Structure formats: C-alpha cells, structure tokens
Amino acid sequence: MKCQAVIGCGFGDEGKGKVVSWLCSLSSNPLVVRFSGGHQAGHHVMLENGLDHVFSNFGSGTLQGFNTYWSSYCTVDPVGILNELSVLNSKGISPTLYIDLRCPITTPYEKMRNKILNHDTQHGSCGVGVGQTFQREEDHFSLLFEDLYYPSVLKIKLEMLKQYYKYTNDDAEEFLSTCKELVDTAAIRPTSGFPHVSYYDNIIFEGSQGLLLDQSIGFFPHVTRANTGLKNIVEMGFNPEVFLVTRAYQTRHGNGPMTNEEIKHEIKRNTYEQNFDNTYQGKFRSALLDLDVLRYAINKDVNLTFSSRHLVVTCLDLMSTYSYTEKGKVKIDTDIIQFVKTIKYAVLANKVYASTEPLERAYVI
C-alpha cells in the first residue's frame, strides 16, 4: 500500500485539490484523508470530461468515485455536508464519507461568533466557524460527531453552547433536525479511526490551506487553528511520500503579511479562481514568488526534513515572465524550464511536476 500527502507551501489556494485528484487517477482504489482544518476548504477539481466541483466537506477524489475519511483532526459542519452532498448527487455522484466519531462539530453558534470576531479583529477568517470550534473544544465545551447519535445529549449540549456564547434569541430546532438527517444518511459512515485501511491501495492525505497558515509556522494572528504540515499525519503513524504544492507566484486572501506586493508584476488572472473577494476573508492578492519565504515554510516543518518530497508548481501559464525574488532581489529566469529548476533546487525536491492545466499533462524535471 502506498501513502502520499499533498501539502500546500503558501497561504492556501495552491492547487491541492487538483493534485489530489491527479494522484487518485494514478491509483486503482485510493482513500482520500482530510487530516487538518475542516470545512473551510475550497478545493476546485475539474475532470477532462467537463465535470467539476469545489470541495469543502468531501475529498478531492470524490468525482472519480473514491471514498473520503474525515479524521478526528477536522471539524464537521452538518449543514455544509448535507448541502454539498445534495449538489454532488445532482451531478450524478454518490459519495461515501467516513467521519471519525471524535471530530468536533461546528454549530451555527460558532459560525456566528467567528463572523463577529473577524469583524472586530480583521484576521482574515473564512467566517465558517472552524477556528471558533477548536477554541470551544479547548474551553471544554465539547461537541463531537459521536454526540449526534444521542439526541437528548445533543440537545443539552446545544443549550450549554448557547449559554457559553451568551446567545438569547436562537432556536436550535433546525440544527437538531439537520443533525438527525446527517446520521440517517447512507452516504455518511461513522468510524473510530481509519476505515478498512487494507482495502485501499493508496492512502492520500489532502492538506488544508498551506504551511504559511499553520498555527505554529505562519504569522500570528493571521493563521488557521490547525497543523497544516505533516504533524498530524506522523501522529497517526504514517510516513508519506510528500507532494509540496506552490503556484508559480504567491497568493493570499485578506489581511496578513505577504512579501513582494510592492513589486510590479504581470501575473494573469486565473479564470477558474473561485474566491476573488470573500466577505470575511477579504480580497484575493497576488505577488511574485519569494524563494526565501518558500524555503522558510518548508524548513519550519521538522517532519519534512526526513520525508521523500517532490514539488508541484501550478499555474505556470499565468506567468508573463519567469520572475521571483531571492534574498530581497528580483530575478528573472530565461525560460520555464530554468524557472522550475530554480524552485526545485531552492527547496531540495527530488522531482518537480510543472503544470498548467490539467495536471495530467505535467512534465517532470
């Protein structure tokens, strides 16, 4: 059995979903595992037959008929899962989603609180309650996926959460109904740990956001409440072949530091971009790739030091010139091959898969 991990090197939006889908296409029966973050993901997958979807609650191999395991490190949004499941069904997809019983549940209360806090702090939250859910768990007001199977307990815990957030005019009945529908849905399978690992020929770990948003690596407070690198995967007992993903340039949503924004560039607009201006995160920003920041992000994850790692460079077709910065200086490579080699040597990757669209036509350096 193979084991692979797809890790974003930047602030998210690197193309992780596309890479996961590509790796799934090379396997006969993979299991996609979400190992960090939660339902704030927006992983856009497009198949060559024209079928496409933006995944938040299911793995990026779902369009190809492959199963997803939602590990205990991830938050679960019952409303979001049922909504996305309905969309997938309308596209002729009947997915199976294994959810670990220990996953924290996001309620409407966390979403509301997240939006209020982000309005006050402008940290760049997605506004879907992921960070607040993790904070609530740390404060011992726990609500896990396994609790949804005990309706009386769930009702008590929701009332306690209402008091925790000091909300007075909210009706939980609709959310209770959603939770009941979720546990009664055939596509949703509760599990304690990995489901039938020996049944799959490849375990593919799908990252959330990027290393520069890791709570221990990124620039606090503009980070996510998750370990986006290998930490959680290693804790689960795996040592995967790693595919580090970066665009040919930097991107970031909303507030928070990003280098090179003062340098003029001619990076083209990606017509497939899903989220140019999010109400809570803010605007989508682009800048030249910074090799120093890229190296920093990778080197800060100590587990990556011992991994077999490759680099995937996406969106090369959006570069008018092959420009980047290193040690504060702008540099320009003469052609696409040299540009990709420069990035490869900077991060000490074994191989580089350089692509435009689709990744299946990538060339290896």
CATH H-level name of the largest domain... which superfamily? Adenylosuccinate Synthetase, subunit A, domain 1
Please bin the fraction of helical residues.
25-40%
Number of β-strand runs: 17
Give the overall shape, derived from the CA principal axes.
globular
Strand content: 15-25%
Rounded to an integer in angstroms, the radius of gyration calculated over CA atoms is 20 Å
- What series of H and E elements makes up the topology? EHEEEEHEHHHHEEHEEEEHEEEHEE
Q: How would you describe the overall organization of this protein?
A:
The chain has 365 residues and is an alpha/beta fold. It has two domains: 2-101 and 192-364, Adenylosuccinate Synthetase, subunit A, domain 1 (Adenylosuccinate Synthetase, Chain A, domain 1, 3-Layer(aba) Sandwich), CATH 3.40.440.10; 108-186, Adenylosuccinate Synthetase, subunit A, domain 2, CATH 1.10.300. Helix content is 27%, strand content 22%. The strands form three sheets. Strands 7-6-5-2-8-1-9-13-16-17 form a ten-stranded mixed sheet, with helices on both faces. Strands 10, 11, 12, 14 and 15 form a five-stranded mixed sheet that branches. The chain has a two-stranded antiparallel sheet with strand order 3-4. Helix 2 crosses helix 6 and helix 3 (108-121) crosses helix 4 (130-138).
